[in-house]
C-alpha cells in the first residue's frame, strides 16, 4: 500500500538563505492561514454561544462567540422532547444498518473486481463506473422506491444508496495491492474463494475496512434527503430531518412574526439542535480524521 | 480513471492463470466462458448481490426515464401508460420559467467552479510553504472539519449567521447599516450560497493537492535554483506543472457536476422570495414532481439535465486528453 502524506510534513528548504521577499511572504502566509482557521471555526463558536444565550440577546444581535445571559432552558426543552430522541435513535439505527449492508456489498464487489484474470471483469467495472457519470434521476428513483413498497420503511433509507462507487474503487485498489502469493498459497492448501476472502484477505484488510466504515457511517449519519423524500411518519425520521423541519418551520414563523410562545425560543432552540446533532461528529473527528485522508488518497492514487 | 497522482504501481506479478496462453478468439469463446464460470463461479457468486443492487437501483431508474416520453399515472405502472412522444420536452423547452432556472443553474455553477476549484490549490500551495509542522497540521485539521457536517447543519448555520440578529448583521451594524434579512433577498442568495460552499469544501479539497505536491521531484527545484529561479518562479515553473494532472482530473470532475449545483443545500436555503436567483433546474423539477405531481414533466427535465451532465464530462475529458494528456479513463 502506498501511504502518501507522511512525507508532506517535511519542510522544504529550497534555498540556502531565504530572500527578504520570501521572509515577508512567510509572515503574510502565516497570517492568512490563521485567518482561514478563524473563519472556519467562527460559525461553530457562534452557534455554541447562541445555544447558551438568552433569546432576547440573540434577536437583538448581541451574541458573537461569548454567550450572553447564560441560559440552559433551550437545552432542557430539547432534552425533554421525546420526538427529538426518537429521531436521534433512528439516525443511529439507520447508520448502523446501512453501513453494515454497504460494507458487505462493497467488499464483495471490490474483491471480485480486484481479480485481474477474471473473465468479464471489464464489464463488471464498467457497470459500476458508468453510474458515476449518469444517473436515473430523482423522479424515476422515487417511482421505483415507491412501487417497491419501501416508503415509510427503514429500507428506503438504507438500500438505495448502498454502494458508493468511489468507496468501491478505493477498496478495489487496496485489494489489488495485496500480494497474490498469499491467496495462491491458501488455494493450494485447499481453501475455496470464500475461505480465502474470509480467512486471508479480510484479516489483512482491517485498516481499509475501518476507513470504509467511517466513510459510509458519516455519509449515512449526515444524510437527510432520502428520509425527507420517502418517510412521512414523524417517529421514523432521522434527526437531520428533525432539524430540517425545525429550521423550515422557524423561517416561516419568523416571517409570519406570530405564534409568540414558539418564536420566543426559536433561535436558541435551533442552535441547541445544531449543537446536539454535530456533537458526535465533533467528538470522534480528531481521532478518525487521518483515516479519511488516507482513504481519499488511496482512492485517488489508483482510481 | 487513470492515476492522478503518480504512475500506477507495477502490475501485480503474473498469476499462474494469467500465464496460460490467452484463449484463441472467436471460435472457442463460448467454451472459455463456460470454463471461466466453472473455474470462478464462487467469485461470480460474490458479485450477484452487488450487481442486483446496481441493476435495480441504478439501471432500472435509467430505464424508468421512459416516463419522460409516456403519460404517467401515480400508482400505475412505473413505466407509464401510453406514449406521448416529445410532448413533455416541448413543454419545458417553451416554458419561460425553465429558462430562468436554467440560467440560474449556469450562473451558480460557474460561480461555484470559479471559487471552489482554484481556492483549494491556493490553500494547498500556502500550506506547502509552512515549515512549522504542528501549525500546518492544525490548520489542515481545522479546515477539513466542515466537510464532515451534514448539509442540514450547514444550512441551519447559514440561517443563524445571516438572520437579523446574526453575525453577518452584526458586521453590517458596525458600519451603522440597517439589519438585512439576507436570506429573504434574492440579490444576496448567490453570495451566501457560494460562501457556504467555499467554507465547506475548500479545506477538504486541498488533500489531493497536498499529496500531489509531495511527489514533485526535488531535483527539479534544485535545477531551477541553479538556473537562478526565485521562489515564485519555482512555484510557477516547477510546482504547478507538477500537480497539473491532479488539477485536470479535479477540473473534469467539477465540470461534470456543474449542473448538479448543490441541490440539497438550495432546497434548504431558498424560499419563494429568493426564487429569482436561487431556483435551479433540480429544485424546479423537484417542485414540479412533488408539489405539482407532474412526474412525466419532471422526469423529462431530469433526463435533459443528466444527458447534459454526461456530455459535459465526456467533452471535458476529451479536451483534457487532447491538450494536456490527462483523462479520467
From TrEMBL, chain A:
UniProt keyword terms in alphabetical order: Cell membrane, Membrane, Transmembrane, Transmembrane helix, Transport
CDD domains reported for this sequence: TM_PBP2
Subcellular localization(s) per the UniProt record: Cell membrane
InterPro entries per record: MetI-like, MetI-like_sf
Coiled-coil spans in chain: none
Membrane topology classification: Multi-pass membrane protein
Ranges of residues in domain ABC transmembrane type-1: 88-285
Residues passing through the membrane, by range: 24-45, 92-112, 124-142, 154-175, 196-218, 271-288
Annotated SUPFAM superfamilies: MetI-like
Pfam families: BPD_transp_1 (PF00528)
One GO cellular component term noted in the UniProt record for this chain: plasma membrane
Biological processes annotated in GO: transmembrane transport
Family label: Belongs to the binding-protein-dependent transport system permease family.
The protein, known as: Carbohydrate ABC transporter membrane protein 2, CUT1 family
UniProtKB/TrEMBL annotation, chain B:
UniProt name for this protein: Carbohydrate ABC transporter membrane protein 1, CUT1 family
Source species of the chain: Micromonospora saelicesensis
Cell membrane keyword on record: yes
Family: Belongs to the binding-protein-dependent transport system permease family.
GO cellular component, as recorded: plasma membrane
Stretches the record annotates as Disordered: 1-30
Biological process annotations from GO: transmembrane transport
Biased composition annotated in UniProt, kind: Pro residues: 1-15
